[in-house]
Design a protein that fits this description.
By secondary structure, the chain is α/β, with parallel strands linked by helices. The chain contains 17 helices and 16 strands. Helix content is 40%, strand content 20%. α14 packs across α15 and α16 packs parallel to α17. The structure holds manganese (II) ion (MN).
Length: 496
């Protein structure tokens, strides 16, 4: 990738526009602002905040983001219509992503127009946008199926009309690296060129990398690769591939990537695929004995990316593929000390659970370890009774009776749902003893029937100490309570 090294690659993030066009996703202006602030902080060059013409909410979001004093350029999607461009300018955008259909299929079937008419519309729109003081990125929609001579013509004239930048949109993901090699270089000579890819055939990342190599200077990306249909090129993958595979230093704050990724997943409601590169739940999780043993001795044996680089941690989980080194490490983390024979016995029982198709949680491991080490278990917090209720005309409520350090206490709390109420009542009951905070709550819904096992992970903190604890049950509320109590016990008692 020699070409790359000479230029300063830019990132144009369209999470708030193309990403928001993911079926079922809708963000409020406030949520959009929260994501935009984070995108700016991480070092994105251009933030496409929305489509100014789409709705009142969109315009409000663009205004809110434009006025937030971010260093990134704030862009909005517009069609070749003066009304769209006016909305962009009136609501404070710095630039427009002016999208023009360029394939005959789009021009004739969608627009029901001719090449000449569409080209003229594009150029007029560029001139109008420039007259309104906007930076213009002129974008060819469905460019990969367009007559490339026509595309070159529209772009060249567009630049003469004032367009500052160009963008090649592979709108439905039909590009290949071979086509990129032919299509991109002549266009990149006209003006600074962006590449916008879709993942319909799983080629978004490959095509984006090929285009950057062929002369495009800017990648259109979304966080977690969300977007229309199968999505767009994922920001986190381009950044890490450039850095690790090509030795190219982006100016993205990589250690914030995971935080950004989870924020977007939470606000959009689009879950991260567990095996997703870089940000998936399993991307830094090891179970197999050989691999876990390897990474504990030297992480690079089975990790191409250091988890700390993107603000994550390596996780070793126990299961039927585990080896004694993983068990020893897990026991150590839970403050248990076991000899070789005891570890062998604990491992045997873990594998039995694994063979039964069960996940081994901290609670399971602690129960097994207590049994094998013959520890008489006196947990700090013990649960006597727990009830949670919810329904269509009531506020979700949870009540609990706990024995906290020998003292029985009963409490009740309400919440946004029964799980929220449960977490709140537990926190309230131990509030007198310790200030324990729930930092993160995560559910792995194991697909299957409605009777499937649910795996809940909580991250709890007390006085700066952070621990992770898991619970697995078929009942999501009880799995949450189990994870919470096990975690609280670990924070409160020095287990020996
Ligand atoms: Mn798109």
């Amino acid at each position: 990738m020699v070409v790359l090294l000479g230029q300063r690659l830019r990132f144009f993030d369209t999470t708030l526009r193309d990403g928001e066009q993911t079926p079922g996703v809708s963000l409020t202006p406030k949520q959009k602002l929260e994501i935009a602030v984070k995108l700016d902080e991480i070092g994105i060059d251009v933030i496409e905040a929305g489509s100014a013409a789409a709705s009142v909410g969109e315009r409000e979001a663009i205004k809110l983001i434009s006025e937030a004093g971010l260093s990134a350029e704030i862009c909005t999607y517009v069609r070749a219509l003066n009304s769209d461009i006016d909305a962009a300018a009136d609501f404070g955008a710095d630039s427009v992503h002016l999208v023009i259909p360029v394939s005959d299929l789009h021009i004739e079937k969608k627009m029901r127009k001719t090449r000449e008419v569409v080209a003229q519309m594009a150029w007029d729109a560029v001139e109008y946008a420039k007259s309104r003081g906007l930076i213009v990125e002129l974008s060819g929609e469905d460019a990969s199926r367009a007559d490339q001579q026509f595309l070159k013509y529209i772009f060249s004239e567009g630049v003469l009309c004032g367009a500052d930048r160009l963008c090649f949109c592979d709108t439905v993901g039909l590009l290949t690296p071979e086509k990129v090699e032919v299509f991109i270089p002549p266009l990149a000579k006209i003006a600074p060129l962006s590449i916008h890819c879709h993942d319909d055939l799983g080629f978004a990342m490959t095509n984006t990398m090929a285009a950057l190599k062929a002369g495009a200077g800017c990648a259109h990306v979304t966080v977690n690769g969300i977007g229309e249909r199968a999505g767009n090129t994922p920001l986190e993958e381009v950044v890490m591939a450039l850095e690790i595979l090509y030795g190219y230093q982006t100016r993205i704050k990589k250690e914030e990537i995971y935080h950004l990724s989870t924020l977007v997943s939470r606000l959009t409601g689009v879950p991260l695929p567990v095996n997703k590169a870089i940000v998936g739940e399993m991307a830094f999780t090891h179970e197999s004995g050989i691999h876990a043993h390897g990474v504990m001795r030297e992480p690079s044996t089975y990790e191409s990316v250091k988890p700390e680089m993107i603000g994550r941690k390596r996780r070793i989980v126990l299961g039927k593929h585990s080896g004694s080194a993983s068990v020893e490490a897990a026991l150590h983390e839970l403050n248990y000390q076991a000899d070789e024979n005891q570890i062998r016995e604990i491992l045997k029982r873990i594998k039995q659970l694994g063979d039964e198709g069960k996940r081994v949680t901290d609670v399971d491991l602690m129960a097994i370890a207590d049994a094998v080490l013959a520890i008489e278990c006196k947990p700090f917090i013990k649960m006597r009774q727990f009830t949670a209720t919810s329904g269509s005309h009531m506020i979700p409520t949870a009540s609990v009776t706990l024995v906290v350090n020998g003292v029985e206490m009963t409490g009740a709390a309400t919440g946004d749902g029964p799980v929220d109420a449960a977490m709140e009542v537990l926190r309230k009951c131990v509030a007198d003893v310790a200030d324990i905070r729930l930092e993160e709550y995560h559910v792995d819904a194991i697909r299957g029937g409605t009777d499937a096992l649910v795996d809940v992970t909580v991250r709890l903190s007390k006085d700066g100490k952070i621990i992770t604890s898991r619970g697995a049950r078929t009942d999501i509320i009880m799995a949450s309570v189990e994870a919470m109590i096990a975690g609280m016990n670990r924070l409160l008692e020095g287990r020996t």
